[in-house]
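ARCHIVE CARD
CATEGORY: sequence design from structure
SOURCE FIELD: tokenized fold
FIELD CONTENT:
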């Protein structure tokens, strides 16, 4: 029953988001009122879902973690938003700012979040800018009602609309650890 309810809720959220997928990121950039600051929430509200993955980071990946955190702070969002953003980037690109990968590309997906110019996320130059791509992701996240209290994977999936919606959960602990390590540095 719980699984059916969860999938139903995700379907409704997915449909609601899918309706705005083309206008969502573009509209978010055009509306400064979207930048209202939410109340602070805990970095991690519950035990991470499922088995957790972890990778070692090189200097470039660590710089991208710091860029995501800086963009989150600049947007006036709490640490939880940075955790969701970093976990999403870990899943989408392993925190590597990916350019065009030829035949290995997923459509026209680029950057830390594998955002698509054809879906309104921005130009290829914008999407491969860590601050811009994080800000675009965060603006999408802020459009999700109740994102602060959702399981990480549900919040990330509602923004990203991935073919693998549960994959984000595996990165929650590492993302939480990275935010704890770099938020005040």
């Amino acid at each position: 029953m719980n699984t059916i309810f969860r999938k139903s809720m995700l379907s409704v959220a997915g449909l609601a988001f899918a309706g705005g997928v083309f206008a969502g990121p573009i509209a978010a950039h055009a509306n400064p009122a979207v930048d209202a600051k939410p109340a602070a929430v805990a970095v991690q509200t519950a035990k991470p879902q499922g088995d957790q993955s972890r990778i070692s980071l090189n200097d470039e990946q660590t710089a991208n973690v710091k860029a995501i955190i800086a963009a989150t702070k600049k947007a006036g969002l709490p640490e939880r938003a940075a955790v969701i953003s970093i976990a999403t980037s870990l899943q989408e690109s392993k925190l590597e700012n990916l350019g065009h990968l030829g035949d290995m590309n997923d459509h026209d997906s680029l950057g830390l979040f594998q955002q698509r110019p054809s879906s309104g996320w921005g130009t290829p130059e914008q999407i491969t800018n860590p601050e811009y791509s994080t800000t675009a992701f965060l603006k999408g996240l802020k459009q999700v009602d109740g994102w602060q209290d959702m399981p990480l994977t549900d919040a990330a999936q509602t923004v990203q609309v991935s073919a693998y919606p549960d994959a984000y959960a595996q990165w929650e602990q590492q993302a939480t650890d990275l935010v704890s390590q770099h938020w005040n540095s």
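CARD ANNOTATION: The helical segments are 2-19, 24-30, 59-74, 79-93, 124-127, 130-142, 152-160, 172-182. The longest helix spans residues 2-19.
SHELF: design records, drawer C
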